[in-house]
Automatic annotation (TrEMBL):
Designated name of the protein: PKS/mFAS DH domain-containing protein
PROSITE patterns in the record: PKS_MFAS_DH (PS52019)
Catalytic residue list: H59, D262
Region (N-terminal hotdog fold): 27-161
GO molecular function: fatty acid synthase activity
Pfam families in alphabetical order: PKS_DH_N, PS-DH
GO BP terms in the entry: fatty acid biosynthetic process; secondary metabolite biosynthetic process
Length: 1061
């Protein structure tokens, strides 16, 4: 009989069915799509480890296996590719564009067999015209919590048949092709690297790449002496055969592999080193990334085909302290652009500035004071170490505690120990005097030169009979830190360690050996200070100190036999924590004598009655001792003579810290003084850690002068978490850079300028900006004003003098741009009176003046109630230039109301000025926008109808022609800093005009339509050049500029950076 399937007698959940019938299998770059989430906001889960993705082990930064930032980008690429196959199976994917990608933190990959769970979340962008536009976020579960590691926007561009037919390749004879080929051409001279040399140098700086990521074949860097041009690097990047490294010798089809993209990032690393010095480099953000995806599904793309060769060009666009921005273009062997990136921000972890910066000023004269946890009291969970500490956290405390470290690493050597330690020292601004690899003659010596190439390490042989190092090495008891990777090497460590040094024992995770068994194997000569397991990698880290020998006293017996406690308050008025501290100190067998500071007796020779007795002064009243006249003299007597003092006071109020400055001065004047100050938070006054600190300080005070006594800290703080902090001075890079920018050359005979503080708007003297500024960042950090000669009686008859409210910071151009209030007027001036608000320009090479003077014809009135001072000052020169240029371009036979001027980049400063100037002349003003959001801004802020705004933001490699909905244009204004989009070119009339404002991008039409654009005139207009060449045009344009200033919309000026002086 036939089967009856009309009724189902079992139920299958949606999750089970979707997982069983899922469209996409596991992908080794993005994982598996999660069925628990909705289809409107898809999400992928990826379990990452070194076993399933062995190529990750080849990406090591500062001794740690770090998930590459390129991996986050490739996850987003593959997610869009899967969504395209699901939503638009009949359409191909032409380009994937990513914008505003930010790498928030580094993702550390644990050692085998641990895994990290990654999740990629995609949220549709509703206001975008593209159906495949999403904002994405990559999170990972590490150390028991979720953290976000990367965010950005991704957009998939679908291919269409019409555009494929209309697409045309660039004619090799066209200007566009000539410009592109010339930009790709390598120079004949430059610094060249082969792959092995390049990657060995990167490894010595902290970027250690294995075979899977060593994909740069050769690299050439432009000459450093090539001034006036941005540094460039050209390289050949090979697509690796990742499938050969996979466990099953198989790799899923993909658009772009992280190893390939990361190899492209390597091209910029030599440029970073030249600018910022040696140090590891990591990308932190990408402004825009366009990736060709047309042949990705067939696995025949130049970006994914193993063995493909790509030509990569990286160009530096901007640089600042320890960070630089670059643009990058990758082309395939056939000359087609397959990847384009702009705004790649990379950060260097170089410990110091490069040599050129240090040569400007070898003296670092500016320092900052910082407080961090004391290594001697290091413990987990109180703030001194995080809840899940790492070895790097311990190294940070070691570097902060001691400078010029002598470090020994005991055999057997770990390949990563020296690299990890030295890179952490560099990261935390520490210093290492020596780093020795210590082994015995019988120890097998591994080939360490390969993985320690470029690091300042030396081999030392330990004499087993005498337990000492050979004569060519440091003596015994000379090492601050001894690193060990086995318990068996600890007996030899004892002979090398300083008395108060530290041994850092780092053991690989072991399932068969519990921690208690490991501790039993530690020699009795050591005592454990700290023990923890790293959350990532599960290594066991143990901090060991030398135990005191039998002939030495422990903490309890080392305390002085007699201590004097001196309080500010009477016993009945003293806080309870003071009495509690005295009781706990007396419990250890120390005799304690109490007294009030005002009742201390001094002998006639003005010396303290008991010189050698340690004194604990407790500042226990609301009024500090140094603010109390009754006891001030008694406190000074104690500080002037041979005394051993421990000064204890609360951390609040701030007046309690008066003793800090007095103590530093007293130490400088009295060599016999031994004074330690402790400031404790109110919440930590009853903690045991305070008693431990008091005992430690008293022990040090009692033993000072002995050879084996520990180094004495002079200042402590105990915060609210009972964390013991110590201070250190460190060089202030920011302040030293400011000093260098204003410093007179070393051998200059010119006197140093005398700096004076005064109000900028003061009418007592005339001042203006001096020096030279290369950028706004430099100007903001080093504004220096100087006096300039100006008399109250030399105001010209047709001139005005204004009191500056805002001025434009430029690179000291000869043109000054001001907004202010008229202060005085010349005899012939009738258009202004004192008190009028004006915006004006000066052509007298004086910039940043507080009381500038200019002809009245160079000033335009405005209303401060409708326009900010800063905006008015910033807009005057762009408005003059736009008014002048559009006036000269007006066709003689055309009526102003019939002229159509398309503005590209209308939201920029010069774009807003062009819109205002065009409206003032009565032009029809359409505009272009990259997306709907920008179109809405243009419509609302610039009052342009939406029907006159056309979108052109569809990313494409190469650019494709568009169907235009714009009216036929007489003028195109290029004001956005980028090339005019094809949609605007197709709207041009015959005999039309192109106006290019202050942009580095050439004005080149699409190659497919070059024949159409005959008899088109292109004008390149630089605002400053217009005013210099024709100063009289300012007066001629005065009325039209005033109208444009009134009609223009200058709200939400996000491009302006305001510096408050």
């Amino acid at each position: 009989y036939s089967w009856d399937h009309s009724v189902k007698h079992w139920h299958e959940s949606r999750l089970s069915r979707e997982y069983r019938l899922r469209r996409e299998p596991y992908h080794d770059l993005v994982g598996v799509r999660m069925t628990e989430t909705s289809s409107t906001e898809p999400r992928w889960r990826h379990m990452v480890d070194l076993k399933t993705l062995p190529w990750l082990a080849d990406h090591v930064i500062d001794g740690l296996v770090v998930f590459p930032g390129a991996g986050h980008v490739c996850m987003a690429l593959e997610a869009v590719s899967q969504l395209r196959r699901q939503l638009y199976p009949n359409k191909g994917l032409e380009v994937v564009a990513l914008h505003n990608v930010v790498f928030l933190r580094a993702l550390i990959i644990p050692q085998k067999p641990s895994r990290v769970e990654l999740q990629l979340s995609m949220r549709p962008i509703r206001d975008d015209a593209s159906p495949l536009a999403y904002s994405f976020s990559v999170t990972a579960f590490l150390d028991g919590k979720w953290d976000e590691y990367c965010t950005g926007r991704v957009q998939g561009v679908l291919a269409s048949a019409e555009e494929d037919e209309a697409a045309a390749e660039v004619d090799p004879t066209s200007p566009a092709a000539a410009d592109d080929s010339q930009s790709r051409q390598r120079p004949y001279n430059g610094t060249c690297w082969e792959a092995e040399e390049l990657y060995n140098e990167m490894s010595s700086d902290g970027n250690t790449y294995g075979p899977g990521f060593r994909n740069v074949g050769s690299l050439m860097l432009s000459e450093e002496e090539d001034e006036g041009r941005a540094p460039k690097a050209w390289a050949t990047v090979h697509v690796p055969n990742v499938a050969a490294m996979m466990p099953a010798q198989q790799q899923a089809v993909h658009i772009l592999h992280p190893a390939t993209l990361d190899g492209m990032f390597h091209v910029g690393i030599p440029v970073m080193k030249r600018l910022h010095g040696a140090g590891s480099v990591m990308p932190v953000a990408i402004g825009e990334l366009l990736v060709a995806a047309a042949a990705a599904d067939d696995n025949d793309s130049a970006l994914s085909r193993p063995g493909s060769c790509l030509d990569v060009r990286a160009t530096l666009t901007s640089s600042r302290f320890r960070a630089s921005d670059m643009d990058m273009v990758a082309t395939a062997s056939d000359g087609c652009v397959v990847l384009s990136a702009s705004g790649i921000e990379s950060r260097s972890l170089a410990a110091h500035a490069n040599r050129d910066e240090e040569a400007l000023d070898e003296r670092n004269i500016c320092y900052e004071l910082s407080w961090q946890a004391d290594l001697d009291f290091l413990r987990v969970g109180c703030g001194s170490l995080p809840t899940n500490p790492r070895l790097a956290d311990v190294i940070r405390c070691i570097c902060f505690k001691t400078a010029n470290l002598n470090v020994a690493e005991m055999a057997p050597f770990s390949k990563n120990m020296a690299v990890e330690f030295l890179n952490c020292v560099s990261l935390y601004d520490g210093t290492v005097a020596t780093y020795d690899l210590v082994h015995t003659v019988s120890d097998p010596i591994e080939d360490t030169d390969k993985f320690l190439s470029g690091y300042p390490v030396h081999h030392r042989v330990l004499q087993q009979k005498e337990s000492s190092i050979q004569s060519d090495g440091p003596r015994n008891k000379e090492y601050h830190v001894v690193l060990a990777s086995s318990v068996e090497s600890l007996p030899d460590s004892q002979t090398l360690l300083k008395t108060h040094g530290i041994v850092v024992l780092v053991l690989k995770p072991s399932i068969t050996r519990p921690d208690k068994d490991v501790l039993k194997e530690i020699p009795p000569a050591f005592q454990v200070q700290l023990l923890f397991h790293e959350a990532v990698g599960s290594r066991l880290v143990v901090l060991l100190r030398l135990s005191l020998d039998d002939d030495k006293l422990d903490l309890e017996l080392a305390l002085p036999s007699h201590i004097r406690v001196v309080t500010h308050a009477a016993p009945e008025a003293s806080p309870s924590w003071v009495a509690q501290a005295v009781v706990k100190l007396s419990e250890v067998g120390t005799k304690i004598t109490t007294a009030r500071l005002g009742e201390l007796e001094f002998s006639t020779d003005d010396a303290v009655d008991v010189d050698e007795m340690p004194t604990v002064i407790i500042d226990d009243l609301a009024q500090p001792i140094l603010s109390d006249r009754c006891v001030f003299d008694a406190a000074l007597r104690l500080l002037r003579h041979k005394s051993r003092i421990l000064w204890l006071s609360l951390d609040e109020p701030a007046s309690m810290h008066q003793i800090t400055g007095v103590a530093r001065t007293a130490h400088a004047e009295n060599d016999d003084l031994r004074l330690t100050t402790i400031h404790v938070s109110q919440s930590a006054t009853e903690s045991q850690i305070l008693i431990d600190l008091l005992g430690h300080c008293l022990q040090v005070l009692a033993s000072q002068g002995n050879v084996s006594s520990p180094a004495a800290e002079r200042e402590y703080r105990v915060d609210a978490k009972a964390q013991i902090l110590i201070p250190r001075l460190h060089s202030s890079d920011e302040l030293n850079r400011v000093v260098r920018t204003t410093k007179t050359p070393k051998f200059s005979r010119k006197p140093q300028p005398r700096l004076e503080l005064c109000r900028f708007s003061s009418t007592a003297q005339h001042i203006s900006l001096g020096g030279s500024m290369k950028s706004l960042d430099a100007a903001a950090n080093s504004l220096v004003f100087q006096r300039h000669a100006a008399s109250e009686d030399d105001l010209a008859r047709d001139a005005i003098e204004i009191e500056t409210r805002a001025f434009v910071l430029s690179s000291l151009d000869s043109i000054g741009e001001y907004a202010g209030i008229v202060r005085r007027v010349g005899q012939d001036v009738t258009s202004f009176v004192p008190g009028d608000a004006v915006v004006a320009v000066t052509l007298d090479a004086v910039v940043g003046a507080n009381l500038p003077r200019m002809p009245s014809a160079h000033a335009v009135p405005f209303s401060p109630s409708t326009l900010q001072w800063t905006v008015a000052a910033a807009m005057i020169v762009p408005l003059l230039a736009a008014t002048h240029a559009l006036g000269n371009l007006l066709l003689p036979s055309a009526e102003p109301t019939d002229v159509v001027a398309i503005i590209d980049g209308s939201l920029s400063v010069i774009g807003r000025a062009a819109v205002a100037a065009a409206k003032a002349r009565g032009f029809i003003v359409p505009a272009t926008a990259t997306d709907r959001k920008e179109a809405q801004r243009i419509g609302s802020e610039l009052d342009i109808a939406q029907c006159n705004i056309v979108l052109h933001g569809r990313p494409s490699l190469p650019r494709r022609p568009y169907k235009s909905s714009l009216p036929q244009a007489d003028i195109i204004v290029q004001a956005g800093g980028k090339r005019v989009p094809a949609v605007a070119w197709q709207s041009l009339k015959p005999l039309s005009q192109i106006l290019v404002f202050d942009t580095s991008e050439p004005c080149i039409p699409p190659a497919s339509s070059l024949k159409r654009f005959r008899n088109v005139t292109v004008h390149y207009c630089h605002a400053m050049d217009v005013l210099r060449a024709n100063p009289d045009c300012v007066a001629d344009l005065n009325a039209m500029t005033a109208l444009a200033l009134q009609l223009g919309s200058f709200k939400s000026m996000e491009h302006l950076a305001v510096v408050n002086v």
